[in-house]
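Ticket opened by: R.M.
Priority: normal
Category: complex prediction / small molecule

The reporter submitted a protein together with nicotinamide-adenine-dinucleotide and asked that the result be attached to this ticket for the collaborator who will pick it up next week. Submitted input follows.
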Amino acid sequence: MTSPFDSGASLDALHSPTIDHETVLVTRGIRSGLTISVAVHSTKLGPALGGARIWNYGSWLEAVEDSLRLSAGMTLKNAAAGLARGGGKSVIFVPHGTTLDNTARRDAMLDLGDAVESLGGSYQTAEDVGTSANDMAIVSERTRHVSGLPADRGGVGEPSDATAAGVYSAVLATLDTVLGNPLVRGRHVTISGLGQVGGRLARRLAAAGASLIVTDVNPARRALAEEIGASWIEPGDEHLFETDLFVPCGVGGALTREIIAELRCRAVVGAANNQLAEHDGAEQLAERGILWAPDFIVNAGGVIYLDMASRPGADLDSILARVDGIGETLRSVYRSAAEQGTTTLAAAEKLAMDRLEGATLRAA
Ligand SMILES: NC(=O)c1ccc[n+]([C@@H]2O[C@H](COP(=O)([O-])OP(=O)(O)OC[C@H]3O[C@@H](n4cnc5c(N)ncnc54)[C@H](O)[C@@H]3O)[C@@H](O)[C@H]2O)c1
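Result attached by the on-call engineer:
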């Protein structure tokens, strides 16, 4: 049976006789006319928290399917991070060839706000791929169930600093596991994707003395490579370079069967969501002797920040300590996988499922 958390799920999920999700709202925005899907996978641990994605898809059904998959992933991520939060995600479907001007974008965000509000607080949205803190400020005109607003609007700002800090902690834990110590100086690291998270991570690794190869499909990012003394390569073949760590920080699905077969690294640890193009990619990586850091453990810094910073009396030091704890969580996943003879993905999923089952038992 296909796992509900299978990152390679297909549209077949839409035809299965049951649904894993608690609520799925598919609506046509009254202002924008755009299809919006808000999927609440689970509220067992608390109100669902997960970002709002605005993206081009081939059809609205593909957008719905993406929201189903991404919200299930948020249940895992939030549970594994030890948050009292369930998993949810929203997706605004923009047909290929359609571009949104400022008015249309504002309309889409107001429509999203209405959709989120209609769920009565079972789901809280935030920024994600294609959306920003400023978009969330517009969403907040229609609902209070939104986080990550700009600081000048009384919000906690966008979460990339925390995500990058969590990935850095995961990098140290991974170096320690595969090379016997967490020293960064002199280690070879290849980063694919120099955006909000990858860029911050690259700066930090360069400052700590790593030898960096970096790439991005956006040629403008080359300036950062020059600034921090990293070697820039054109995107496409970055996985072929021999390195200690391969760090995917671009879009999901980067680890296809072909890429995994060609990787020349000790470990893969990166920010990108849903890195495995196929669920059995975890087995393929393990067979090749490459340690894979499950993405939903590694990139939880942002959601930890959004959850903790939006609570009354939030204290930055405690948030940073919790984000830094991602390294320790990852070490426990590595240990458990080694002891049980499973993949790191199976160990990470078990960690999340144990927390969900613990909550179910406490509620019974
Ligand atoms: N921002 C966060 O707090 C956060 C939190 C959790 C997970 N993530 C995940 O981390 C990843 C990066 O997030 P971000 O906020 O930095 O996004 P971003 O859009 O700022 O940066 C992504 C970068 O990757 C580049 N890119 C895209 N496809 C590429 C490819 N095939 N090869 C090389 N580069 C490519 C883009 O040009 C861009 O510069 C995403 O998968 C995102 O879902 C981000």
